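Journal club prep, notes for RB
We'll compare a predicted complex against what the paper describes. Inputs for the NDP case:
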Amino acid sequence: MKGRVLIIGAGGVGRVVAHKCASLPEVFPEIMLASRTREKCEAIARDLPRPVATAAVDAGQAANLTPLLRSYQPQLVIHVALPYQDLAIMDACLEAGVDYLDTANYEPPDTARFEYKWQWAYQERFRAAGRMAVLGSGFDPGVTSVFCAWLLKHKFDTIETIDIIDCNAGSHGLPFATNFNPEINIREVTAPGRYWQAGQWIETPPLHEHQPFEVPEGIGNLEIYLMYHEELESLAAHIPGLQRARFWMSFSANYLKHLEVLQNVGLTGIEAIDFQGQSIVPLQFLKALLPDPASLGPRTTGKTWIGCQVTGQKDGARRTHTIYNICDHQACYRETGAQAISYTTGVPAMIGAKQIVTGAWRGAGVFNMEQLDPDPFMDDLNRYGLPWKVMDGPVFAAGA
Ligand code: NDP
């Protein structure tokens, strides 16, 4: 049925997607929220402005999900559970003839590798089935890729450098917590840094390169750290002539101090160890101890600033533009019951889903966000809670 969607995942991001889809009945007339733990779906459903169906599903195996897809017959699956389930959900979508959208690329549970190769390998199968898979429709990846596509369409003839900067000037008042799934967050942050330059990947030790950043509009002075992030791979593949692409994220000294200790004592490890005859993965144990990111909403204050500083050529002259969004944690909480990190991921997931179900984005195959028309998505960012601004010039010294 047109506009019928199945949302998988009932964490902080799933909560925001459910809220946003439920507030647009003309686009999403029917919604089901499914996750491993049905009570979490029901708790979210109780807060929504209209009834949505709920279901329990372990989406880690396509065979578990396919019967649900066949009986509910959605047009689209919005996958906001964990990256480990990406391939199983893509398989189930192919079997049941359903479009697919996610916010994070597949990772094998036993190695922290952020690569698109596993999902790009589905290109021919989605093409042959006439179905659309849209990868990475969160903020980063997601909006950041659309920002670059929009700048290329409207402000540049060619893009030479991209610096994506993700700042969280918010505070939850706890000694240590991650603002999205702790396991995925810590795997990402502790991985080596990597950036694209002159046609090759340059690797740096984890969080080795950093610099101060005065966040525009008086949001604060933060230290930003060079990291690898998955949209660098797809931007390098899809933005012609791109010479350099880097990703920076802000961390507080307190977060890094805790992370260092946790790493030093081995609690961030992803290889199973034997503990009193039981096999446990230290990072999964740590996740069980840390606050649930979905619980941070009421206590998180302050703002996020996420943007792209892009340099390129226009009419023979070299130019720089910076494009960004600012989001307020408490405003997000008042609207959806979730803090800004979940909000800035869940709103773009709904907007990407809207483009697919309305036909604004149509195609058979596997697509990254920068490959699709940025204009309707950018309009919807302004309409549905993530307004953006574009300014001439840089916001930080990006180097040569
Ligand atoms: P949470 O950990 O809060 O929620 C994850 C949800 O997925 C939980 O409801 C969990 O259920 C469910 N889940 C886990 N495994 C399965 C399974 N096998 N089958 C069905 N459901 C399952 O995560 P977040 O909401 O913070 O993040 C969701 C996703 O968004 C992640 O993939 C994350 O990487 C991505 N993300 C993307 C960003 C972007 O900008 N692109 C930024 C932030 C996050 P249970 O509680 O029962 O375990």
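Talking point for the session: Residues 259 and 277 are 27 Å apart (CA to CA).
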